[in-house]
């Protein structure tokens, strides 16, 4: 039976009259003789939202989208396609998925495939184990807010193996919706105070714009420490002390963020450098946030990834049992490039037990991360072993992806450094180059007259004349008087050669135009 509310005829008629009258007034655009104003306008918008900037998907990317649409509609440009080198989106750039990861996620999503002979047994038992940890044995259920228990245990086992026996407690592991979600969550816990007691967040410059955007949104204080470009973007401990002491005059620095391997700068920090950072954090009582999403992306033979947690452990119990550390990893980077699954995790150690309860409360508000992303994360930390059926294909695919990235890192560095007025540090890791570009004084003046940063002017010209979309260095931060752009090394080797050739030709033409080729 259908149930309907009873409304007396008189009330119903009155309501209709009021509605019709109001409708007529609104259709005329007026109510009580006034134009109705929006409740939410730029004047009433949260000012912290207005302050947020995210260069990776900023104005230059919107312009690239407009040009793409124009070309699709039959418009003509000096180029036939837009090459988007602005974002680390591996699959969008043509990288193929890792077969085993997709097999396990497919089995989890559609368990009827368990009966199919097309799927290997090692993928089936992993999927079965994950499903047994899900409510109703379904990926469509919510998990516990910190994530599926067996996946958290697999991550802890992976960390112990990666760090050569350093203990990892699975209850310190929290699954996240990509690493970004974990980073935002930890910052929310840390930001407090007013005026000179407001939380200061120390971030590297250049930095990944997630950090500056989050700091703006939370109305925290951004404390910049500059990486040493002349020394392959190394982290200088004296610069950390300078930034810290200067910041203490107007805020309370409580946290230091490190991106290793670096984004956008591509450097891999040495063990000695990490020890110095951790000693600094220990001395100044700072919470450490270590963004390690590119830990599998190390290309230079004499570089090695060292996790902050392992180095902290090796510094001895006084450090390992006291320095608060959150480390982040993701499905989006590495050799899998599974950005769309939004999978990730964080390991948080030495957090006050009462604060830890508050962290769990905060995580519970967003219920849980997507279970498909959790399953994908599980495959990354629990890949096929040498004695399993899928190992050979998995190992071939992984080596192929990382080998190609290493070749492209070297190629990018070599071609850019052969261009007059461009200097590119070695791309030791991650998936970006961040070359320094010389912009002639006349071009700088023209950019200022147009009200834009010189490297934004340069990148817009590059886009409009070649179809190449890169991100201006000003979106990541840089020392005054220097200019850069960030480009990803993800395109295929053939497309990357075309891209780099176009950048070379454009830059030489740009210098000639502004009479600065000498």
Automatic annotation (TrEMBL):
Keyword Hydrolase among record annotations: no
InterPro entries xrefs: ALAT1/2-like, Aminotransferase_I/II_large, PyrdxlP-dep_Trfase, PyrdxlP-dep_Trfase_major, PyrdxlP-dep_Trfase_small
EC number: 2.6.1.2
Residue intervals of the Aminotransferase class I/classII large domain: 137-501
Gene Ontology molecular function: L-alanine:2-oxoglutarate aminotransferase activity; pyridoxal phosphate binding
Catalysed reaction equations from the record: L-alanine + 2-oxoglutarate = pyruvate + L-glutamate
GO CC terms, sorted: cytoplasm
Pathway noted in the entry: Amino-acid degradation; L-alanine degradation via transaminase pathway; pyruvate from L-alanine: step 1/1
Cofactor: pyridoxal 5'-phosphate
Keywords, in A-Z order: Aminotransferase, Pyridoxal phosphate, Transferase
SUPFAM superfamilies: PLP-dependent transferases
Top-level EC class: transferase
Pfam families to which the protein is assigned, alphabetical: Aminotran_1_2
Gene Ontology biological process terms from the UniProt entry: L-alanine catabolic process
Keyword Transferase: yes
Taxonomic superkingdom: Eukaryota
Oligomeric and partner information: Homodimer.
Main function: Catalyzes the reversible transamination between alanine and 2-oxoglutarate to form pyruvate and glutamate.
Entry's family note: Belongs to the class-I pyridoxal-phosphate-dependent aminotransferase family. Alanine aminotransferase subfamily.
Name of the protein described by the UniProt record: alanine transaminase
Native source species: Sinocyclocheilus grahami (Dianchi golden-line fish)
Gene: LOC107598690
